[in-house]
Amino acid sequence: MLTRRLALLALSAALASPALAQAKPVSLVILGDSITAGFGLPKAQAFPSVLEALLRKRGIDIRLVNAGVSGDTLSGGLARLDWSVPKTADGVLIALGGNDMLSATDPKISRAALEKILLTLRARGQKAAVLGMRAGANWGGDYAKRFDALFPDLAKQFAVPLYPFLLEGVALDARLNQSDGIHPNAEGAKLIAGRLVPFVTKAFALDAVTSGPV
User: Fold this and answer.
1) pTM summary value
2) What is the pLDDT of residues 32-68, one digit of tens each?
3) Domain map (residue ranges) of the chain
4) Which amino acids are annotated catalytic?
């Protein structure tokens, strides 16, 4: 009888103390292209993996889901949004646009796709942040002006955080890119991840999401 009473007391205490339960880590999805997927790199060296490791090193309990597909455009990301980004995810980093620029896609098409992605995530109640892209000089000033503007314009319209240029400090630097001059090497991916740490931490208010002492 005493053993049964002790068991019941222990069960009651556990039910009355939700703080004892292990909270789930924050789940963020990075919806991207080959740069996100880590083209030419082992999975552990792709920037999403490095970013997750850096955030965890800071004591942030987080899981980053790499939803990068090589060759994807903003329209492609929109087309696969429902199966690439589960509704259970806490937030989404949108890292698309590079292939739109490389294929000289009309910025109106890219803008419409990004707008629809942001509308869908808003309707779901999911926090979003945009990792912007910039056009190369080879497409001319008019194209670059229209393409570059779509990311800050829509980030402002939807009041979502914007990281202006995903490849900041890496683009066009041969030391930080693979032989194709497009995809970051391991050092380039590491630099991208390191630069994103403060942005992602602030964008998703992660300072309060700790996993205990580091």
Assistant:
1) 0.87
2) 999 999 999 999 999 999 999 999 999 999 999 999 9
3) 25-205
4) 34, 180, 183
